[in-house]
Amino acid sequence: MRRVREALAVLRERLAKTSTSPDLDAAILVADALAVSRAALEADPDRPLAPAEAARLETLAARRAAGEPLAYLTGRREFWSLELEITPDVLVPRPETELLVAWCLEAIAGRRRPAVLDLGTGSGAIALALARERPDAQVTAVDSSAAALALAARNAARHGLLNLRFVAGDWFAPIGEEKFDAIVSNPPYVAPDDPALAALSHEPRAALVAGDDGLADLAAICNGAPARLTGAGCLIVEHGALQGTAVRELMAQSGLADAETRRDLAGRERATRGNRAR
Questions:
Q1: How far is the CA of 78 from the CAs of 75, 98, 214, in angstroms?
Q2: What is the crossing angle of helices 125-133 and 146-158, to 10°?
């Protein structure tokens, strides 16, 4: 009967060809298969795996070796120190998207009861982070996917966040002319022919791909934002590393002022902000 230390060693070797972090992946999968914490694995490396645990681990290992994201295997992902339920209905939240949260919090600092709109909320990662950091804010989360909205609502309930509402629809359509102090979005921005899509095959294509070289949804959001922003409001969007110039141009064309792009921790242009012109 295989023990924890042996299972970890075998799995690390198996995942070394397909994962950039085989040690971490192996520890997460073994812990999940045994329904224990990673600390428990370290504390008892000689624990034997029961047949059912070994069978579950094999299933998880095969799926991970085929490139399926860990978050879909374990059903959870941490974002902004919030543990979120994650399903294949939504994108897996990325660390670089935390840049939007930080920038939005900066933008609404000092405002009383700010109204914030999150377009394409998915798992609710951005909306929940903002709602927790600013309990006085009213956060509206929009998504065209009923499954995504249901998931985001479950995540909000799990963390006891009550200052959110979830609205179904495409971009600005369900909120009419309502105005917000800040609008944030991590929309689809990958071009249909981008080679990077091959590595993202397990995630929902509709949440990744946009027409016009990946700029179609970004353009729609930029065009619709000015009419939905308060006098001092701003739009902040995530985009591809090579799309900063194009997004700044889209904002200028839509009437947003002072377009500014910030880089992620890897030094890539990742998010752009534009303000409502006064």
A1: 11, 11, 27
A2: 30
Cα 110 to chain centroid distance, Å, stands at 26
Domain ranges of the chain: 4-67, 90-276
Could you tell me the strand order of the sheet in which 164-168 lies?
164-168, 138-143, 115-119, 180-185, 229-238, 269-276, 256-263
pTM over 0.70: yes
The percent of residues in the chain predicted with pLDDT above 90, rounded, is 88
Mean pLDDT, residues 229-236 taken together: 95
Joined together, the tokens standing for residue 202 give 């397990």
d(CA 98, CA 95): 6
Structure tokens at 115: 């109204």
User: Interior CA angle at 95 toward 102 and 212, to 5°?
Assistant: 90
Q: For 90-276, give the CATH class.
A: alpha beta
